[in-house]
Amino acid sequence: MKIGLAGIGKLGAAMMTHWHKSNLSIGIFHPDRSKAEQFAEKFPNAHPLTDNEMRQMDIILLALPAGKVISFMDSIIQENSSIAFINMATALPTKRITERFPFCKVFGLKYMGHSRDLMENGKGLFITEDHLPAPIQDLFRPLGEIIKDSEERVTEVNKLATYFAVTTAVEIEYELTGKGYHPAYIKRAIASLAPEVIRAYSEGALGHFAKEIVKEIQESNKKSC
């Protein structure tokens, strides 16, 4: 299968990191050829593609901002195109693409999480409403797990997680500032301590001190119900 990646931002780089480890050959496209070449230098399994070469791909991953997906497809698609497109833009429902290009094969596959986490840790989580062909499932196997669910679920979870993460950061900053702690301590608490405690909680690896705090919170929640 000839695979092309349109979009060499944070998500594109995160996916390439793990495809490189699996030695999967991926074609890279960017309208600025020099940027595509610079990106490909980081990954020996990557090779820059021209517009015409991109049109010869079997699968094209659209790791582009939502506002650029339609215009990119307009520039690539030719009559009787057999390319399978993978829409990864969280803010662009796949239905809108299929309405615009009813003659194309378009699959929605959205990443739930932060691209930095995917790059550093792998084991990503991808959501799709579609029955994905085996080659696409195989392509994403090195990246993590695929769950069948509504695309809207990705937006809902991302918004909730972002809201509570920002709320936590603001509250930590407010409390420590009010107690007169050094700015370096406040920065460390937000950038390192809190994220690592949350990660440990998700993995069931909290230390004794943190577990006691969890018990206190749980007991408090029971009393307030």
Automatic annotation (TrEMBL):
Transmembrane segments: none annotated. This is Pyrroline-5-carboxylate reductase catalytic N-terminal domain-containing protein. It comes from the Bacteria. Residues 2-79 form the Pyrroline-5-carboxylate reductase catalytic N-terminal domain. Coiled coil: none annotated. The lineage of its organism: Bacteria, Bacillati, Bacillota, Bacilli, Bacillales. InterPro entries: NAD(P)-bd_dom_sf (IPR036291), P5C_Rdtase_cat_N (IPR028939). Gene3D superfamilies: NAD(P)-binding Rossmann-like Domain.
